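Researcher: Here's the sequence for the chain we discussed earlier.
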Amino acid sequence: MQQDIRVGVIGVGRMGQRHCRVFANLRHVDLVGVCDANPENGQRMAQQYGVACFAEIDRMLERVDAVSIAAPTPLHFDLAARCLAAGKHVLVEKPITETVAQAEQLTALAEASGLVCMVGHIERFNAAYIELKNVLETMTPLAINFRRLSAFAGSNVDVDVVLDLMIHDLNLVLDLTGAAPTRISAQGLNVLSNTIDHAVVNFRFETGPLISVTASRVTEHKVRSIEVTAREAYLDCDLLNKSICVCRETIGEYLNQNQRGVKYRQESVVERIQVPIVEPMFLELQHFVECVIERKPPLVSARDGLQALALADQVRRMILDDFAAGASSHKPVELLAIA
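Model: Thanks. This is the structure I predict for it:
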């Protein structure tokens, strides 16, 4: 009989609460407890799920096999390194760490440990994205446009829009292409904060499609979309509403019964791909548990998280250079250097 994996959640803010909910309902998982810098938050979640609330992380680590880290990004490196050193499997929310240097060090630690270290790039587990990849296996993409738009209210203002939103799509870009871009152009605006609120990036690759990525937190309409222009068709993937439309060019002539003339002519066909209704967070955490049980590599490894963060850092630096030159800022501000 399969022994349950004992799991603890570190950080029970908005994302950590979702982790607790899913872990509490997953097979082969025993949600042991939570740990949070705010004792009241920790106690509330512990009572809700009937688990322990640990005041110290070391006490939690004595009781668990794996941890889920949903604490603020500046704490990711220290927490993840501490858990790996204690021999615990780790799921850390994106971005993997605050800096690329930390991500490089954590990736080295994870790969040397032999433990599962997975990064929470949740869109990789979005059923619409999974089906989109299946459809694209038989096509030749020419251009791909990613759009991730949100309102400023509710945004994570601790980081800019590149680390808050765009990094999701940067991970998808790397996953779809399997290569680093050979040329990058990036522009941005600071509108409602003193950092990047709206960003547009274009990528060129040695081989493969042209790719553009837009991320904004100054729009009132929430969008999560991937538009693909392929040689064979045009595809519109809605990650938010879990739908995919495939528009193909075709010409069909439908005759009258007496075969004397064309009744009407069909010039294109729109296919709607069936997308399973399943919560991405459920698939993500289920995959993490399976990796721990079977000791297999995760779909989104620490190295994947490092590569996404390194690309995001490159994009941010390009935009901040524009800001410093006064070329792209919406209003004059003094920007701090990125570590």
